[in-house]
């Protein structure tokens, strides 16, 4: 693949900034975008010269394949500002590797690493005032690729657009989350695209999640489509169970997203001598553990959600309320993660990357 | 829901027509569009006044949820012109019902029937010169809905766009098709969205289909994700098997699209006293039937493909070539269907609808 330096990105600066219109203390997730966006088109068999331009609507044909066949993948990342004003990314190489893994599964061309990182750093430098310091503040970064070729035959497109847009963020879920364990609906099949951050995986969850919301649950924890006996993930989060002092989470496979927060928590648990078991987790064992009191906590983990404690779950019309505990694993891991992300603690595994 | 008559559609006519630039004898499927398109936006909790305007690119925010979460469903229909110049649709009520069924599964608001039919008929009247008479000619019609709300939180959008675009068409697959029976990859899960014409279902098939193409197969016939022992559908077509003189096809369920061509063939078979079995079809029985000579034919059926004879299949690295037979069911049903669609034969079941 061709190589590109930051200097070769075509930059059109915004004439004015929108930043003064934003109340950073009251931010609805994903509705406000920074002054610039990164755009790179794929055509004639290769990625073209990338551009950074003022954030703006784009023009696209109604026959663009993304609208008809869902060829679209994305990533979720965050940038954090430390007290000295430096801006940091968290394990961004993992996001780049994963968007290409997602892309390959959807027959989308991979995006070159140097384009990705030069584009990302150049964009974040232009919009660095949008990254606010302080715990809980971050800039949510959304790289994504869509099929733009104007042709509605059901086959892979020959034209794509890779973009990065950025949105200032607070925590995604506020308060504790109540979840429903899926008994009928499924998120993904063996041999399917569940492991990919494919756009279609998300829309498929909205209706079952709406039904759960009507019952008072914010999220669904998906179970395996074959038997509905094993717990998998929550769609926007991987899920961890603490039974006594052991942390348990499902292994990744072709149905479950290989979450970066998930794997960071597994590493942090090991670093802190907490027993971690990565194995199939049955609905039955979690219900049994809830009944006998050994289930201490459940929490979700993901870039947008960070760590989201779960206060109750329902399965087979039985509701299990979880105890309030002190020194929860959820709170310990959240603090450790945020401290690393905000450059407040040592970075043993070289997870931070400074934006320069 | 509110009601709307054709007169209330806002119509902006194209100043010129593109029709003279089109070589109707050499048409690549889905790349050429007629002079007009139908557009109706959903916001503030309701569908707004529909518009017909010159076919053109549209402006959409990069944060529109369709790009990120795949909230998009569509339909495929065709219009046919008879020798008297009248234009006909085939079972369009089924398309309207199905797009709403697909929409409901993806938490997209349903589109009112009167909007759908008034829009469709008004659009086709404007562009009726694009429907060419003669067997094999048709106008492919693509109604679709996309989530347009500019906000990247993972939840159903509050704004959508419903559109109809039209593209002149010849047959979709030319020549016979060789297929691979899926052994590893899957199209959909129990409890998933396989029954819906959801955009994401299609992108998920592109990579496995590319791998099949590298082996010399144009299509994959999907098997159930749990066991890969039962044959389901081909992604853009339902699949029929003829064993001796019995026609067999899989029942629809939440993994398989309820194809309109499929159900029409089942009815035509009944009308013509051909035995039809709608039941699970195992890979094993089809391989056994191929070996003992009782498997006479396999064909795919769908709106775009009409009826597509399959000349060979591969499973577990074993290739089965199908015989060339005279008076194949595929050719019989294709002729009967096309004759009904083109107003050349009696329409026993009131499948035709004239465009007025």
Structural description of this entry:
Two copies of one chain form a homodimer. With 356 residues, chain A is an alpha+beta fold. Chain A folds into two domains: 164 residues, D-amino Acid Aminotransferase, Chain A, domain 1, CATH 3.30.470.10; 165 residues, Alpha-Beta Barrel (D-amino Acid Aminotransferase, Chain A, domain 2). Helices cover 24% and strands 28% of the residues of chain A. The first copy, chain A, is built from seven helices and 21 strands. In chain A, the strands form three sheets. In chain A, strands 1, 2, 3, 4, 6, 7, 8, 9, 10 and 21 form a ten-stranded mixed sheet that branches. In chain A, strands 11, 12, 14, 15, 16, 18, 19 and 20 form an eight-stranded mixed sheet that branches. Chain A has a two-stranded antiparallel sheet with strand order 13-17. In chain A, strand 7 and strand 8 form a beta hairpin. The longest helix of chain A is centred in the middle third of the chain and has 16 residues. The first copy, chain A, is globular, with a radius of gyration of 21 Å. Chain A starts with 9 loop residues before the first strand and ends with a strand. The relative contact order of chain A is 0.14. The mean pLDDT of chain A is 96. At the A-B interface, strand 5, helix 1, strand 9, strand 10 and helix 4 of A face strand 5, helix 1, strand 9, strand 10 and helix 4 of B. Strand 5 of chain A pairs antiparallel with strand 5 of chain B. Chains A, B: Acts on leucine, isoleucine and valine. Chains A, B: Its cofactor is pyridoxal 5'-phosphate.
């Amino acid at each position: 693949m061709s190589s590109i330096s930051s200097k070769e990105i075509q930059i059109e600066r915004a004439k004015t900034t929108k930043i003064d219109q934003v109340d950073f203390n009251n931010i609805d997730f994903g509705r406000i975008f920074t002054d610039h966006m990164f755009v790179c088109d794929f055509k004639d068999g290769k990625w073209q010269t990338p551009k950074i331009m003022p954030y703006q609507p784009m023009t696209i044909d109604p026959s663009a394949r993304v609208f008809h066949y869902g060829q679209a993948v994305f990533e979720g990342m965050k940038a954090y500002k430390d007290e000295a004003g430096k801006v940091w990314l968290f394990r961004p190489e993992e996001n780049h590797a994963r968007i290409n893994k997602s892309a390959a599964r959807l027959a989308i061309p991979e995006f070159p690493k140097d384009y990705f990182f030069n584009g990302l750093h150049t964009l974040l430098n232009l919009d660095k005032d949008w990254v606010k310091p302080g715990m809980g503040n971050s800039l949510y970064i959304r790289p994504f690729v869509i099929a733009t070729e104007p042709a509605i035959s059901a086959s892979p497109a020959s034209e794509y657009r890779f973009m990065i847009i950025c949105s200032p963020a607070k925590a995604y879920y506020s308060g504790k989350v109540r979840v429903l364990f899926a008994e009928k609906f499924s998120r993904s099949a063996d041999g399917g695209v569940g492991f990919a951050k494919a756009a279609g995986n998300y829309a498929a969850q909205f209706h079952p999640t709406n039904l759960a919301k009507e019952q008072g649950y914010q999220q669904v924890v998906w179970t395996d489509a074959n038997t509905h006996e094993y717990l998998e993930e929550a769609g926007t989060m991987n899920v961890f169970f603490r039974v006594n002092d052991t942390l348990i989470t499902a292994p990744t496979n072709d149905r479950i997203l290989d979450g970066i927060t998930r794997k960071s928590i597994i590493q942090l648990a090991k670093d802190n001598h907490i027993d971690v078991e990565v194995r199939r987790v049955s609905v039955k064992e979690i219900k049994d553990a809830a009944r006998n009191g050994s289930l201490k906590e459940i929490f979700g983990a993901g870039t947008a959600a960070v760590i989201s404690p779960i206060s109750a779950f329902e399965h087979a019309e039985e509701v299990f309320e979880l105890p309030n505990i002190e020194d929860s694993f959820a709170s310990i891991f959240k603090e450790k993660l945020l401290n690393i992300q905000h450059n407040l603690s040592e970075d043993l595994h070289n997870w931070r990357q400074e934006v320069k």
